[in-house]
């Protein structure tokens, strides 16, 4: 498959991985298991590094969007490229494990330095992605063990996957079978623990909110009652002209209100226009008299004019004493329908803040009281400032708008999509309303402790999975040893049987094995016994055939010799007109004699009898003599001879027989004629090479080894009408083997065949 087709296949698998990543599985809050790496590693294993890199780049687009930086995307592309590059050397799980072993430096550089994530988040990200990738590699490897998939993907399977052992297959399958239930159980348990912790936090927040609401209601009710009493008293004691009592009387009333109302820090009586007529206390910390202060710009001055009962103001910035946020109870002073002024009691917010702080269970628990306009009445974790704070536009305000009334929810204090585990910036809060004034009491806690719990749960899950994997590997190794030991004994018996030991049996060695394996061994023994009997029958028939061929060859040689002599005598007595016919008889007798000799040689080889008589001869001279004689007798062929003197220890008659067979075959299988090329050259100081080439019908894909068999001529239609017994190459190979050499056939470019003989010059 070309590189572009591989890249196209990787792109398709990458798109599939992208779709799988859209359906990420949340193992724990903020910890997701992505399914896309399975497709990425499948592309890498089957199609190579380029396809794996493309698949990782496409599948990792989801991680870029999910985490807000490109480093997870790049990491997935590099993983596909790395595993694909090592697919022909290592198993997928091994190459992926090596990749993750080298990844800490990458995470520190990208996540830690470039993305500026905390070290803890960087470590968690690296561990999470490593587990994700290794699980995907394990799943790919087990998927490629399925027989149906292996049949369909056979040409694309790399060698380590295609030649996987049964023991490793068992170990991988058992490991995956142990990990998946552990992940499911861990996911359910982790989610249950997290939900329990969240409910516990919400219950704590609700408990504090209820206490604070009750205290606020109590203080407001008490201050409203005190202000209402003083307002009625002043209204009843007003002068006939509608004027309020004298300042001394007003100050006495205000002093009583402040003294007997601990929730009030100061009070004053204001005129209808909003000017202070009397104050308690009389002056501020710097000694300035407070009576006469102008508060006409205050909103409560306008509102109280229309009211007949005390009202509670929204939070505002005080101007008396220390500038700080204030909330006041304001009651109208009336004489009938006539409005005479108002009484104001400023609530002691620091005391309320201290009470709320005392109710919290942890330092991270925070109480904020908000008025109707989302301005902060007081904050348990923040002292009074010179400003009135507002949460308008903050993540908490948005969360309150979504929640509506009272209840529990959460918000992200620092919405940061880069963080893998986001519970660290999450805040869980509970809201209770102060119905009298429309305030909301918000009690919240940071989820940092929950993040710690999540990390502990994830670490515990990984430890559990690691333990399960270790136990599974040990059990699988023991099981494999138990199962494969009998199989190995059967295999050893089969090897002994193949090497000629017909008494090789396996049943006794597998007596203690499981029933199925014992049945396998028994069946093997039955097969071995049957094969042994059949081999004995075949060998007996072969011996009888060899004896027949030997006897027939000897018997045929005697009349052939006599006929040869008679033809020689006949040549002397006939005229020139009959000489050509006598020569034809002589050639046919020579051909028949060679066939008989080949049959005799084949029978001798079958019985192991073909002695060599080596002398020092010149291979070039033998090749020249045989080639010129044979090609010279064929009018359609020409000889191209390339030889140089090459002396060695050979059986001259047998080497001549081999050359005769090869040259004769080149002529015979080139029926249309052409050049017969014969070359003899030195390969090295110790070896010689003989080549015989033609431009004939050539070889089929299955002919290279089949044609060296005894009585084998191939099954192609082109050789059906060409005569021959099919023993020439068989005898030639055995002769060359006895010379410690090799002989081979190969297809020639442009048509034809080449026979090559390599011989050592010395025995």
Task: Walk me through the topology.
Layout: H1 3-21, E1 25-28, E2 31-33, H2 36-47, H3 49-59, H4 61-67, H5 71-85, H6 92-101, H7 104-114, H8 119-143, H9 147-152, H10 159-162, H11 166-236, H12 247-260, E3 264-270, E4 276-280, H13 299-305, E5 311-312, E6 316-317, E7 325-326, E8 328-335, E9 338-347, H14 349-359, E10 365-370, E11 376-379, H15 395-403, E12 407-412, E13 426-434, E14 439-446, H16 448-498, H17 515-573, H18 576-606, E15 615-618, H19 619-632, E16 637-643, E17 647-650, H20 652-668, E18 674-682, E19 687-693, H21 703-706, H22 728-738, E20 742-747, E21 753-760
Parallel strand pairs: 16-18
Antiparallel strand pairs: 1-2, 3-4, 3-9, 5-8, 6-7, 8-9, 10-11, 10-14, 12-13, 13-14, 15-17, 18-19, 19-21, 20-21
User: How many separate structural domains?
Assistant: 4
The Rg value, from CA coordinates, equals 52 Å
User: What percentage of the residues does DSSP assign to strands (E)?
Assistant: 15-25%
Query: Distance between termini?
Result: 48 Å
Structural class: alpha+beta
Please name the CATH architecture of the largest domain.
2-Layer Sandwich
What's the CATH H-level homologous superfamily of the largest domain? Answer: PAS domain
The CATH topology label of the largest domain is Beta-Lactamase
Largest sheet: 5 strands, antiparallel
CATH class of the largest domain: Alpha Beta
- Tell me the total number of β-strands: 21
For the biggest β-sheet, the strand order reads 4-3-9-8-5
Average pLDDT metric: 80
Number of discrete helical segments: 22
Fraction of residues in helices? 40-55%
Basic shape:
rod-shaped
Low-confidence stretches: 417-421
């Amino acid at each position: 498959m070309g590189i572009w087709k591989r890249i196209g296949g990787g792109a398709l698998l990458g798109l599939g991985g992208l779709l799988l990543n859209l359906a990420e599985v949340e193992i724990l809050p903020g910890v997701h298991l992505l399914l896309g790496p399975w497709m990425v590693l499948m592309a890498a294993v089957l199609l190579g590094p380029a396809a794996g890199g493309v698949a990782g780049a496409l599948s990792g687009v989801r991680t870029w969007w999910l985490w807000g930086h490109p480093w997870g995307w790049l990491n997935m592309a590099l993983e596909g490229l790395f595993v694909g590059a090592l697919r022909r050397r290592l198993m997928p799980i091994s190459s992926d494990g090596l990749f993750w072993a080298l990844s800490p430096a990458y995470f520190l550089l990208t996540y830690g330095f470039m993305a500026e994530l905390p070290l803890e988040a960087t470590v968690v990200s690296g561990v999470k992605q490593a587990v994700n990738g290794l699980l995907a590699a394990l799943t790919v490897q087990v998927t490629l063990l399925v027989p149906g998939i292996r049949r369909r993907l056979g040409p694309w399977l790399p060698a380590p996957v295609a030649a996987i052992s049964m023991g490793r297959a068992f170990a991988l399958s058992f490991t995956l079978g142990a990990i998946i239930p552990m992940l499911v159980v861990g996911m359910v348990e982790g989610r249950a623990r997290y939900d329990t912790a969240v409910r516990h936090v919400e219950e704590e927040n609700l408990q504090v909110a209820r206490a604070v609401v009750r205290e606020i209601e109590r203080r407001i009710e008490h201050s409203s009652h005190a202000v209402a009493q003083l307002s009625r008293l002043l209204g009843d004691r007003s002068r006939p002209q509608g004027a309020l009592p004298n300042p001394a009387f007003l100050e006495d009333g205000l002093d009583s209100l402040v003294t007997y109302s601990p929730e009030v820090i100061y009070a004053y009586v204001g005129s209808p226009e909003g000017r202070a007529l009397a104050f308690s206390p009389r002056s501020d910390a710097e000694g300035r008299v407070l009576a006469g202060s102008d508060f006409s710009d205050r909103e409560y001055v306008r509102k109280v004019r229309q009211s007949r009962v005390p009202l509670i103001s929204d939070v505002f910035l005080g101007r008396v004493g220390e500038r700080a946020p204030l909330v006041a109870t304001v009651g109208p002073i009336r004489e009938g329908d006539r409005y005479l002024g108002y009484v104001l009691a400023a609530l002691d917010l620091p005391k309320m803040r201290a009470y709320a702080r005392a109710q919290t269970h942890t330092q991270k628990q925070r109480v904020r009281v908000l008025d109707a306009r989302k301005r902060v009445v007081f904050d348990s974790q923040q002292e009074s400032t010179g400003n009135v704070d507002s949460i308008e536009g903050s993540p908490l305000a948005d969360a309150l708008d979504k929640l509506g009334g009272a209840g529990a929810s959460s918000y992200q204090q620092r919405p940061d999509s880069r963080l893998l585990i986001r519970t660290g910036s999450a805040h869980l809060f509970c809201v209770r309303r102060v119905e009298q004034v429309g305030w909301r009491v918000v009690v919240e806690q940071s989820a940092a402790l929950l993040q710690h719990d999540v990390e502990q749960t994830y670490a515990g899950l990984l430890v559990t999975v690691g333990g399960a994997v270790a136990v599974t590997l040990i059990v699988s190794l023991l099981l494999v040893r138990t199962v494969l030991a009998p199989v190995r004994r059967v295999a050893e018996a089969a090897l002994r049987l193949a090497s000629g030991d017909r008494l090789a049996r396996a049943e006794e060695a597998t007596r203690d094995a499981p029933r199925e394996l014992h049945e396998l061994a028994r069946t093997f023994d039955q097969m071995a016994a049957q094969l042994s009997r059949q081999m004995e029958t075949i060998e007996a028939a072969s011996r009888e055939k060899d004896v027949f061929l030997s006897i027939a060859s000897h018997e045929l040689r005697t009349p052939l010799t006599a006929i040869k002599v008679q033809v020689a005598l006949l040549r002397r007595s006939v005229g020139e007109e009959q000489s050509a016919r006598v020569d034809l008889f002589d050639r046919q007798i020579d051909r028949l004699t060679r066939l008989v000799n080949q049959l005799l040689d084949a029978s001798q080889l079958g019985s192991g009898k073909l002695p060599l008589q080596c002398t020092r001869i010149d291979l070039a001279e033998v090749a020249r003599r045989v080639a010129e004689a044979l090609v010279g007798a064929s009018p359609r062929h020409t000889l191209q001879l390339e030889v140089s003197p090459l002396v060695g220890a050979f059986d001259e008659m047998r080497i001549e027989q081999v050359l005769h067979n090869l040259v004769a075959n080149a002529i015979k299988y080139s029926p249309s004629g052409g050049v017969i090329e014969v070359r003899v050259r030195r390969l090295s100081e110790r070896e010689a090479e003989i080549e015989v080439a033609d431009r004939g019908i050539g070889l089929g894909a299955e002919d290279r080894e089949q044609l060296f068999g005894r009585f084998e001529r191939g099954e192609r239609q082109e050789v059906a009408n060409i005569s021959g017994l099919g023993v020439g190459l068989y005898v030639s190979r055995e002769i060359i083997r006895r010379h410690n050499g090799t002989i081979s056939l190969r297809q020639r470019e442009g048509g034809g065949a080449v026979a090559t003989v390599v011989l050592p010059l010395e025995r």
